[in-house]
Each structure stands twice: as structure tokens, then as C-alpha cells.
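Exam revision sheet. Question 4 asks you to relate a sequence to its structure. Input first:
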Amino acid sequence: MSSINIPDSTVVEFRLKGAVCLRGLFDLNWLESLATGLEKNFAAPGPDHTRYTESGKPGGFYDDYCNWNRIDEYRDFVMRSPAAEIAAKLTRSNASRLYHEHVLVKEAGTQEVTPWHHDLPYYGVNGNQLCSIWLPLDPVPQSACPEFIAGSHASGTLYYPRLFINHKNYADGVEGFESIPEIDQHRAEYEILSWDLQPGDCIVFHMRTIHGAPSTE
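Answer key, C-alpha cells:
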């Protein structure tokens, strides 16, 4: 029997806007378990980890991924948490498949911003029933929340992936891709979605939805 209640109106909102905030669907025990896994991750980073904040600068921006098969808490979350059911319901699929988990940590006082991008070009997948779940382990004020361009997933445009460390395109010149628009210079022209989040809340967004994240200064 299903344990997750997602109203039909939220499924429609996800289809139309490409990002929704879901409240309180993850028990705090899951967050505590992931926090334990994160400490293990910090103590023994994976081969693909990156630290974007230079030594001596305030805060800290760090990422790592593809560690779920060596960190028990991550594996348990993948296999037993509500994440798969949430993804299936919002994408109207009968099943969910994991591509990978991705840890992003941006400490208070961090100056670096996450560049505007969408996820699809980074991954070896294609299709429309694709989503990412952004699950914070701590309260996140709207001022520090990732921002999403409503409806951008439906444009059909593919944008070059961008390097987080210097915000430059990579794979420039590949046919069928464009550079991300200068969103920050024209913010009033877009419907930008972001939320205040409490532990247990999450954001689910389509892998074609343009998004970025501010500094935490």
C-alpha cells in the first residue's frame, strides 16, 4: 500500500512548472541517518569530490557523488526511503530507477553561487520522466534556497552544462545546445520559484528545469 500522499494538483503543478516543494514527507530519522553518512563521506571522500571554496575564503562549498554503494546510510536511503515513490508519483511512472546520489554542502557565509544550469546534459539519460530530489538536512531560508525557473523544462531547449568552479560552458560547440540565458540580469522576466524549507521538506524538479543557488553570505 502507498505510504506517500501527493495530491493530484501537485502532480499537475510539477508537470506545468517543473519544480514543486513537498512538505514533511521524510521522517527525521532519515535525515539523521543521512547526516551520519555525510560525516563518513567527509572523512573518506569519493574519487569525484570537489571543493569549490578556495582555502582561506569564508564558508565552504563542497560536492561529491556516486558513493551510495560504499556508504551504508546512503544505500539504505536509496533502497528504503520514500524517495523512489515520490519520484514515480510525480513523473507518473510505475517504477523509479536511480542514476546517482549527489551530496552538495554550502556552509553559512559561503560566497560562491551555484550557476544557472539544468541537470539533463550532465547525465547519460534522456526522456521526460526524469526528476531530481533536493533534500536538505537542515532548515533552509528562502534567501539561501535553490531557485527554479518555472516552466523552463518545457521549452525543448538543451543548454550546455556549466562548470561549477568557474561557471564556463564545457563541451562548447556541440550541435543542439545553447548557452544558458543571462537570467540574473533579467530576473523580472521570469517566474522564479524558491521556498523556506524545514527538515523533512524536499524540492522535486524536472531534470530539464533551469535552476541555480545563491551564496549563503
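Marking note for examiners. The radius of gyration is 17 Å.
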